[in-house]
Amino acid sequence: MTKRHDDIFDAVLSGTPDARRAGDEAGGKGRAPARFLKRGNAISDRLSGENEEKTLHWVDPARCRMWARHNRDYDLLTEETCSDLIEGIRAQGRQEFPAVVRRIDDPDFDFEVICGARRHFAVSWLRANNYPQFKYLIDVRDLSDEEAFRLADIENRDREDISDYERAVDYAEAVKLYYGGRQKAMAERLEVSEVWLSRYLELARLPQQIVAAFPTVRDLRELHARTLKPLLKDAANREALLKCARSIAARQDQARAGQGGFVDAQKVMSELRAVGAAPKPKTALKKTYAAPSGGGEITLQRRGKKLQIEVPAGMSRSDLEAAFARLLDAEY
Question: How far apart are CA 244 and CA 85, in angstroms?
Fold first, then answer.
């Protein structure tokens, strides 16, 4: 509003009983019209579409289930990992920020949680531990699966309590489900670079033997995938790396069973890199077999499980047969 409009609005509002009463309470110093003007501006903003009213709901968290494609693994949530949120809700006396949900047709549940798994866990935990008065604050929206995926990603992209691997698996599934396998299209929708996205997709492609070698998926980082990628591409290294990973995973399983300590992520990477950097068997020297007549020679070199034979251009058939006969005699 212009100043003239402000003055007119103040003048109109000053004539109302509420404004006169508020003005009397303010000592006649003109603060009441300003307060009413602020309220008037808020109404004006809503009418013009600049502000949007939301209706939030307090519900029993037991009536809400996690979306199957929620990018947080609910089973990894514990009292310890959510202790800060549990204490915050308990101290405030309620949940401050609503979870985003959508309605579902399910006799056992009313809503599906798109964003808000930790809040759901915290409120559920409090209700089960002597605080039954707490309820789950939700914002109900009408969302497609692709919209739900993008909304969850925007809310949680910078959250440190979602692991790189959880995010990577989420992206790998989403690129197939919503973007027809087109990485570029997905990057554009998420407003990220293709390079950034490809790093997470590479992480999701790590062999399960490698994933199992880490204490938990929370310890597996995008940087680890970048480090291991060139080692896994080398056929000679790959099987040795996977064998090493299986050995580490067995030790992690023992630790989970209470037998010994976990191998931390740094040690895991150290052991895997050591295997990848192990000296490779030296390639055997070339062997030569000359024709008796001195008409040239052929060479033999072993490459893995194959033999490579080189014949000089212009060597006569008879000299080639003679040199090849010597090769057969020596090697077979």
Answer: 39
pLDDT tens for 156-175 read 787 766 789 989 999 999 99
Cα distance from N-terminal residue to C-terminal residue, the chain: 98
Q: Which residue has the higher pLDDT, 135 or 299?
A: 135
Identify the structural domains of the chain with CATH numbers, from first to last.
3-48 (no CATH), 56-162 (3.90.1530), 214-222+229-276 (no CATH), 287-331 (no CATH)
Instruction: Read off the tokens for 152.
Output: 């969850």
In the structure encoding, which two tokens stand for residue 57, read together?
Answer: 């709901």
Three-state DSSP at 177 gives helix
pTM: 0.60
In DSSP notation, 44-66 reads HHHHHTSS----EEEE-GGGEEE
How far apart, in whole angstroms, are the C-alpha atoms of residue 64 and residue 100?
A: 11
Average pLDDT (235-260) is 92
H or E element, residue 236: helix 235-256
